[in-house]
Design brief:
2 copies of one chain form a homodimer. Chain A is mainly alpha-helical and 188 residues long. Chain A contains 9 helices and 2 strands, in the order αααααααβααβ. Chain A folds into 2 domains: 56 residues, Homeodomain-like (Arc Repressor Mutant, subunit A); 109 residues, Orthogonal Bundle (Tetracycline Repressor, domain 2). Chain A has a two-stranded antiparallel ribbon with strand order 1-2. Chains A and B meet through α6, α7, α8 and α9 of A and α6, α7, α8 and α9 of B.
């Protein structure tokens, strides 16, 4: 008989399996997320893992399930200072191995897996929506004359941090963060 | 007895295996590159695949072995026009599924696999070196007064294209390409 999805035993298994899959992902990469290794790491019978998560991409989804997107969520003023602070915080997060793992795994897995693609789109749309709202409000208040369309702001400002972190594997310094904010418009 | 690495039979096997691994990667993702599937797709005995490529990360390396890096390789003048042309060509490449696969697989696999990390670093360093040389020469000729350090040019100009293509899964238009080139300095 199928265990109900709100059964406490199922929820405990799910938490253990998510933790095990995440640990394997961070330490060894997505290829390490197999039913055998997740079951062993979580201390759960392999049959249980197969029953609820028959495919390995579902295990990868559990590994990525708790990734938050806290950036640009509460606009502050002056907007320029707030953008510099948020972008700096994001740059410091992208200095971390675990954050690089999550970002590149998401971008890669989304090319084939529908569930991951929905998650990728969710992150991208959220970032674009938050930046668009903040920049349009700042322009309405006369804080900035925008050079770029607000919907391009994420690519223009976050793109360089993401490339530096995941392709060049370096860090983005304060001067570059300030320059990126200044590329978005003329701040008064 | 071990087949010598310059033996024509070995080279034919290697080519078939590289082609099979690449086809599986593009269609199904890095997780599809297993000894069994590569052997079947290449029409080669599984034992042969295991003998020469005992680990799956070596098969992934074969799948990525022939990826070229043709961008920014032959500077033209005026430098601003050349940069716009090259960046536009790169943006059009990043519109393609296969190029997104290669870029995101490299960034992801490099976090755990030494061979992939060397390849990632090779791409990143080559791009930085080419842009640095072209921008410094343009500045010496009085074509531009650079705002950014030339070593940051790849992150500033290519980063937004890479983010747009692999996180937002959209395209970078001509106006954005022109703006990115203008962010690098004041062109005369």
């Amino acid at each position: 008989m199928e265990t109900p999805r709100d059964d406490p035993r199922f929820l405990r298994s799910r938490e253990a399996i998510g933790g095990a899959a995440r640990a394997l992902l961070l330490a060894h990469g997505p290829g390490a997320i197999t039913h055998a290794r997740v079951a062993e790491h979580a201390g759960i019978a392999r049959a249980t893992v197969y029953r609820h998560w028959p495919r390995t991409d579902q295990l990868l989804a559990e590994a990525m399930a708790t990734v938050p997107m806290p950036f640009f969520d509460a606009p502050g003023t002056p907007t320029r200072d707030w953008l510099v602070r948020e972008l700096t915080a994001l740059a410091r997060q992208l200095d971390l191995h675990d954050v690089r793992v999550v970002a590149t795994t998401l971008a890669n897995a989304a090319l084939w897996e529908e569930h991951m693609d929905a998650r990728r789109a969710g992150f991208a749309d959220l970032l674009t929506a938050r930046l668009t709202e903040a920049l349009e409000a700042a322009q309405a208040r006369g804080e900035v004359e925008l050079h770029a369309a607000p919907r391009d702001a994420a690519a223009l400002a976050v793109g360089p941090l993401y490339y530096r972190a995941t392709i060049e594997r370096g860090t983005t310094d304060d001067a570059t963060v300030a320059a990126l904010v200044d590329h978005l418009g003329r701040w008064s």
